[in-house]
Design a protein that fits this description.
Strand content: 5-15%
Number of helices: 11
Number of strands: 5
CATH architecture of the largest domain: 3-Layer(aba) Sandwich
Helix content: 40-55%
Bound molecules: 2-acetamido-2-deoxy-beta-D-glucopyranose
CATH superfamily of the largest domain: Glutaredoxin
CATH class of the largest domain: Alpha Beta
Oligomer: single chain
Distance between the termini: 78 Å
Shape: globular
Length: 267
Amino acid sequence: MLYRILGLVVTVVAVSGADVCRLPSRLWCSSRKTADDCQVTQQCSAQDWSHETAAPPVNLVLYYESLCPFCKQFITDQLFPTFSKLSTDVLNITVLPFGNAEEKKEGDKWEFTCQHGRGECEGNLMATCALKTTSFNSTAYLPFINCMETHATEHAIWPALLLNCAARNNVSHTDISSCMKSDDGNELEHQMGVATKAEGVDYVPWIVVNGQHTNETQEAAQTDLLKLVCQTYTGIKPAPCTSVLSTDLKVSFKRSRKSKLAKKRHY
Ligand SMILES: *[C@@H]1O[C@H](CO)[C@@H](O)[C@H](O)[C@H]1NC(C)=O
Ligand SMILES: *[C@@H]1O[C@H](CO)[C@@H](O)[C@H](O)[C@H]1NC(C)=O
Ligand SMILES: *[C@@H]1O[C@H](CO)[C@@H](O)[C@H](O)[C@H]1NC(C)=O
Ligand SMILES: *[C@@H]1O[C@H](CO)[C@@H](O)[C@H](O)[C@H]1NC(C)=O
């Protein structure tokens, strides 16, 4: 009798397992859900599924132009230092170099007019070509863009900056320079313009966090981007977040202020 009951239990388990477990056995441990469905969760315990429960990165999109002073400041003081502290699993950065430029088609090429003059258009195109040359991999292009913005001025000699910043940051100056002369580079800069207009950018830097642009996130990003990203990230907070998320005031009061506080609080 006991054996018959056990036999029945085993059969029921096998049947219900087989119902949802339609994969070949070598794939049973491939995800937590598959293992559950195939009723081999315990047998698969050596498998690491932690990435499945990882939170999505904070997505940050920056619309900017190469010579605007607040763009330079944001990139060099906030964006690059924050990028340097966090992994791309926590912060996913995209930049679009176009800003407040205008464009019109002349023959089969786009002509750009930029707020801070022709040099700015050249800087925008150089940055756009750096994105293309690195296959839009922010880890590869951001150090170069940070270098450009660190040294960019209205009198910037871009070809010299290109050589210098490319050599220091492992990007190919020859690829960037040929992109800048090509129809592909011209078309890609136009695409930056199309995306910038579609976003409805009316000042730069224009910062979009997880698809939203608000005055509050703009202000928070320009004041302390690391803190904003740490607050927004829904996963386990990485180590660099510990200091910015601590609620202790890092100040020391003046004696006089301390005694005023004491009075107000009736200690
Ligand atoms: C990173 O951002 C880009 C552009 O916004 C987006 O296409 C991509 O899906 C994002 N990656 C992740 C992992 O969210
Ligand atoms: C992005 O670029 C970095 C630095 O060059 C490189 O280590 C990484 O493998 C690249 N990532 C991808 C997805 O190609
Ligand atoms: C330099 O760039 C190449 C791609 O062009 C990449 O494979 C390599 O990982 C980079 N090296 C470093 C140190 O980032
Ligand atoms: C955002 O800030 C701008 C400029 O300070 C202001 O004109 C606008 O009304 C603000 N928008 C909202 C929704 O508060």
